[in-house]
Amino acid sequence: MNNALLSSEKNYWETPQDFFKKLNEKYYFSFDLAASPENTKCENFFSEEDNSLTKSWHELKGNLFLNPPYGRELRKWVKKAYEESIKKHDGYIVLLIPARTDTSYWHDFIFGKAQIKFLRGRLKFELNGEPKDAAPFPSAVVIYGGSQ
């Protein structure tokens, strides 16, 4: 097993390309809200240097994809997505996050406020575009906006 993949210091879990492709076939994403030039899934994206948390997402056009860093700051990302979804009227904000339903941010910003799709099994996230071992946690897709 890849110890780096399980490290608590690893906060960046690259979205599996096949998984993103299926999501994108439904939502046609125009913007990746947390990416790098090497792993972005959309032509338009915010990098770590851009600091997406300081941007106005509701001003962006189209549907937005977010696979945020999974560290201690995850609550801030989920809160931001929820708050921006209240302002955003022309599209969806779709998150790929760990299904840690016992956490306060799930109760504060997801349950009763978004559509949730729990994923069966464990995703094989990527590192530099290559699939790695299955994640040590379950995942969910959280969808803000519209009626799915």
Automatic annotation (TrEMBL):
The keyword Cytoplasm does not apply. Signal peptide: none annotated. GO terms for biological process: DNA restriction-modification system; methylation. Keywords: Methyltransferase, Transferase. GO terms for molecular function: DNA binding; site-specific DNA-methyltransferase (adenine-specific) activity. Pfam families: Dam. Transmembrane segments: none annotated. The keyword Protein biosynthesis does not apply. This is Phage N-6-adenine-methyltransferase.
